[in-house]
Protein backbone atom coordinates (compact mmCIF):
# COMPACT_ATOMS: atom_id res chain seq x y z
CA UNK A 1 0.00 0.00 0.00
CA UNK A 2 2.86 2.36 0.77
CA UNK A 3 4.31 1.76 -2.69
CA UNK A 4 0.93 2.14 -4.37
CA UNK A 5 0.11 5.46 -2.76
CA UNK A 6 3.71 6.64 -2.81
CA UNK A 7 3.90 6.17 -6.57
CA UNK A 8 0.92 8.50 -6.94
CA UNK A 9 2.62 11.29 -4.99
CA UNK A 10 3.00 14.32 -7.29
CA UNK A 11 2.15 12.08 -10.24
CA UNK A 12 0.91 15.06 -12.22
CA UNK A 13 4.46 16.40 -12.42
CA UNK A 14 5.55 13.29 -14.35
CA UNK A 15 3.08 13.40 -17.24
CA UNK A 16 5.89 14.44 -19.58
CA UNK A 17 7.04 10.81 -19.57
CA UNK A 18 3.91 9.95 -21.58
CA UNK A 19 4.35 10.38 -25.32
CA UNK A 20 1.79 11.83 -27.71
CA UNK A 21 2.19 11.50 -31.45
CA UNK A 22 1.48 14.51 -33.66
CA UNK A 23 1.11 14.32 -37.43
CA UNK A 24 0.32 17.42 -39.49
CA UNK A 25 -1.74 16.37 -42.51
CA UNK A 26 -2.95 19.94 -42.97
CA UNK A 27 0.42 21.58 -43.62
CA UNK A 28 -1.17 24.95 -43.02
CA UNK A 29 -2.00 27.46 -40.31
CA UNK A 30 -4.16 25.01 -38.32
CA UNK A 31 -1.37 22.45 -38.15
CA UNK A 32 1.18 25.10 -37.21
CA UNK A 33 -1.10 26.36 -34.43
CA UNK A 34 -0.85 23.00 -32.67
CA UNK A 35 2.95 23.14 -32.54
CA UNK A 36 2.91 26.74 -31.34
CA UNK A 37 0.36 25.84 -28.68
CA UNK A 38 2.48 22.94 -27.46
CA UNK A 39 5.53 25.19 -27.12
CA UNK A 40 3.57 27.29 -24.63
CA UNK A 41 2.26 24.27 -22.71
CA UNK A 42 5.17 21.84 -22.54
CA UNK A 43 6.61 21.06 -19.15
CA UNK A 44 6.79 18.28 -16.53
CA UNK A 45 3.00 18.23 -16.10
CA UNK A 46 2.23 18.01 -19.83
CA UNK A 47 2.71 14.93 -22.04
CA UNK A 48 5.57 15.05 -24.52
CA UNK A 49 4.34 15.82 -28.04
CA UNK A 50 6.45 14.12 -30.71
CA UNK A 51 6.04 15.54 -34.21
CA UNK A 52 6.36 12.93 -36.95
CA UNK A 53 5.97 13.33 -40.70
CA UNK A 54 2.98 12.11 -42.65
CA UNK A 55 5.35 9.92 -44.66
CA UNK A 56 5.93 7.87 -41.51
CA UNK A 57 2.21 7.75 -40.72
CA UNK A 58 0.42 8.17 -44.05
CA UNK A 59 -3.06 7.19 -42.81
CA UNK A 60 -5.22 7.41 -39.72
CA UNK A 61 -5.01 3.63 -39.41
CA UNK A 62 -1.23 3.91 -39.03
CA UNK A 63 -1.68 6.36 -36.17
CA UNK A 64 -4.21 4.11 -34.44
CA UNK A 65 -1.86 1.17 -34.83
CA UNK A 66 0.96 3.11 -33.17
CA UNK A 67 -1.32 3.86 -30.21
CA UNK A 68 -2.64 0.28 -30.04
CA UNK A 69 0.81 -1.31 -29.84
CA UNK A 70 1.92 1.17 -27.19
CA UNK A 71 4.44 3.28 -29.10
CA UNK A 72 2.49 6.32 -27.93
CA UNK A 73 -0.11 6.80 -25.22
CA UNK A 74 -2.19 8.83 -27.64
CA UNK A 75 -2.06 10.90 -30.80
CA UNK A 76 -3.36 14.12 -32.24
CA UNK A 77 -3.32 15.09 -35.88
CA UNK A 78 -4.57 17.87 -38.10
CA UNK A 79 -6.80 16.82 -40.97
CA UNK A 80 -6.05 17.45 -44.61
CA UNK A 81 -7.17 20.87 -45.92
CA UNK A 82 -8.32 21.99 -42.46
CA UNK A 83 -6.82 25.45 -42.99
CA UNK A 84 -8.36 25.94 -46.42
CA UNK A 85 -11.81 24.90 -45.18
CA UNK A 86 -11.54 27.36 -42.31
CA UNK A 87 -10.32 30.15 -44.59
CA UNK A 88 -13.20 29.58 -47.00
CA UNK A 89 -15.70 29.73 -44.13
CA UNK A 90 -14.27 33.03 -42.91
CA UNK A 91 -14.84 34.69 -46.28
CA UNK A 92 -18.20 33.15 -47.15
CA UNK A 93 -21.32 33.46 -44.97
CA UNK A 94 -22.90 30.55 -46.85
CA UNK A 95 -19.97 28.25 -46.10
CA UNK A 96 -19.70 29.56 -42.53
CA UNK A 97 -23.28 28.47 -41.80
CA UNK A 98 -22.35 24.84 -42.40
CA UNK A 99 -18.78 25.03 -41.11
CA UNK A 100 -17.96 22.42 -38.46
CA UNK A 101 -14.78 23.11 -36.49
CA UNK A 102 -14.55 19.65 -34.87
CA UNK A 103 -12.95 17.80 -37.82
CA UNK A 104 -10.00 20.24 -37.89
CA UNK A 105 -8.13 18.16 -35.33
CA UNK A 106 -8.51 14.50 -34.43
CA UNK A 107 -7.22 12.80 -31.30
CA UNK A 108 -6.82 9.10 -30.61
CA UNK A 109 -5.98 7.53 -27.27
CA UNK A 110 -6.40 4.39 -25.20
CA UNK A 111 -7.62 4.63 -21.62
CA UNK A 112 -6.53 1.04 -20.90
CA UNK A 113 -2.95 2.27 -20.65
CA UNK A 114 -2.42 3.93 -17.27
CA UNK A 115 -6.16 3.98 -16.74
CA UNK A 116 -5.78 5.76 -13.41
CA UNK A 117 -4.36 8.78 -15.22
CA UNK A 118 -6.14 8.47 -18.56
CA UNK A 119 -8.73 11.18 -17.94
CA UNK A 120 -6.11 13.60 -16.65
CA UNK A 121 -3.90 13.08 -19.69
CA UNK A 122 -6.90 13.28 -22.01
CA UNK A 123 -7.65 16.70 -20.52
CA UNK A 124 -4.23 17.74 -21.83
CA UNK A 125 -5.39 16.81 -25.34
CA UNK A 126 -8.37 19.10 -24.85
CA UNK A 127 -6.08 21.79 -23.50
CA UNK A 128 -3.79 21.73 -26.52
CA UNK A 129 -6.84 21.93 -28.81
CA UNK A 130 -8.11 25.01 -26.99
CA UNK A 131 -4.64 26.53 -27.03
CA UNK A 132 -4.33 25.90 -30.78
CA UNK A 133 -7.63 27.71 -31.34
CA UNK A 134 -6.35 30.65 -29.29
CA UNK A 135 -3.10 30.72 -31.28
CA UNK A 136 -5.04 30.80 -34.54
CA UNK A 137 -7.26 33.66 -33.31
CA UNK A 138 -4.27 35.68 -32.15
CA UNK A 139 -2.26 35.21 -35.35
CA UNK A 140 -4.22 34.37 -38.47
CA UNK A 141 -7.48 35.64 -37.03
CA UNK A 142 -5.97 39.05 -36.37
CA UNK A 143 -4.61 39.22 -39.91
CA UNK A 144 -7.89 38.39 -41.63
CA UNK A 145 -10.17 40.37 -39.32
CA UNK A 146 -10.03 43.60 -41.41
CA UNK A 147 -10.80 41.56 -44.54
CA UNK A 148 -13.85 39.61 -43.41
CA UNK A 149 -17.44 40.56 -42.66
CA UNK A 150 -17.24 40.21 -38.88
CA UNK A 151 -20.75 41.64 -38.52
CA UNK A 152 -22.12 38.41 -39.97
CA UNK A 153 -23.01 36.16 -37.03
CA UNK A 154 -21.86 32.93 -38.67
CA UNK A 155 -18.49 34.39 -39.65
CA UNK A 156 -18.06 35.93 -36.19
CA UNK A 157 -18.81 32.55 -34.62
CA UNK A 158 -16.25 30.91 -36.89
CA UNK A 159 -13.46 33.34 -36.04
CA UNK A 160 -14.21 33.05 -32.32
CA UNK A 161 -14.18 29.25 -32.42
CA UNK A 162 -12.07 28.28 -35.42
CA UNK A 163 -10.65 24.96 -34.24
CA UNK A 164 -11.96 22.05 -32.23
CA UNK A 165 -11.28 18.32 -32.15
CA UNK A 166 -12.98 14.96 -32.33
CA UNK A 167 -11.57 12.31 -30.00
CA UNK A 168 -11.62 8.53 -30.17
CA UNK A 169 -10.91 6.27 -27.20
CA UNK A 170 -9.76 3.02 -28.80
CA UNK A 171 -10.20 0.94 -25.65
CA UNK A 172 -12.54 2.64 -23.18
CA UNK A 173 -11.94 1.85 -19.54
CA UNK A 174 -13.58 4.49 -17.33
CA UNK A 175 -11.94 3.22 -14.17
CA UNK A 176 -10.10 6.32 -13.07
CA UNK A 177 -8.79 6.36 -9.51
CA UNK A 178 -11.21 3.63 -8.45
CA UNK A 179 -8.42 1.10 -8.74
CA UNK A 180 -7.10 2.49 -5.46
CA UNK A 181 -10.32 1.46 -3.75
CA UNK A 182 -11.22 -1.84 -5.40
CA UNK A 183 -7.80 -3.51 -5.22
CA UNK A 184 -5.20 -3.30 -2.47
CA UNK A 185 -7.03 -0.67 -0.46
CA UNK A 186 -9.97 -3.03 0.06
CA UNK A 187 -8.07 -6.30 0.38
CA UNK A 188 -5.34 -5.28 2.82
CA UNK A 189 -7.62 -4.05 5.64
CA UNK A 190 -9.63 -7.29 5.39
CA UNK A 191 -6.47 -9.42 5.59
CA UNK A 192 -5.16 -7.42 8.54
CA UNK A 193 -8.50 -7.72 10.31
CA UNK A 194 -8.52 -11.47 9.62
CA UNK A 195 -5.16 -12.02 11.33
CA UNK A 196 -6.00 -9.74 14.24
CA UNK A 197 -9.27 -11.61 14.74
CA UNK A 198 -7.58 -15.00 14.57
CA UNK A 199 -4.82 -13.84 16.89
CA UNK A 200 -7.40 -12.70 19.43
CA UNK A 201 -9.24 -16.02 19.19
CA UNK A 202 -6.09 -18.09 19.64
CA UNK A 203 -5.02 -15.92 22.55
CA UNK A 204 -8.40 -16.48 24.18
CA UNK A 205 -8.23 -20.23 23.63
CA UNK A 206 -4.69 -20.37 24.96
CA UNK A 207 -5.65 -18.67 28.20
CA UNK A 208 -9.32 -19.58 28.51
CA UNK A 209 -11.41 -22.47 29.91
CA UNK A 210 -10.30 -24.95 27.24
CA UNK A 211 -6.67 -24.72 28.33
CA UNK A 212 -7.65 -25.06 31.99
CA UNK A 213 -9.72 -28.16 31.18
CA UNK A 214 -6.81 -29.75 29.37
CA UNK A 215 -4.48 -29.15 32.31
Could you write a compact summary of the structure shown?
The chain has about 220 residues and is α/β, with parallel strands linked by helices.
What summary fits the major beta sheet?
A: 5 strands, mixed
Distance between the termini: 44 Å
Number of E-type strands = 5
Strand order of the largest sheet: 2-1-3-4-5
Mean pLDDT: 83
Low-confidence stretches: none
**Radius of gyration, in angstroms, nearest whole number:** 27 Å
Helical run tally: 9
Q: Hey, roughly how much beta strand do the residues contain? A: 5-15%
Question: What portion of residues is helical?
Answer: 40-55%
Q: Which H/E pattern describes the elements?
A: HEHEHEHHEHHEHH
Describe what you observe in this structure.
It comes from Penicillium citrinum. This is DUF3533 domain-containing protein. The protein contains nine helices and five strands. With 215 residues, it is an alpha/beta fold. Helix 2 crosses helix 6 and helix 4 runs antiparallel to helix 7. It starts with a helix and ends with a helix.
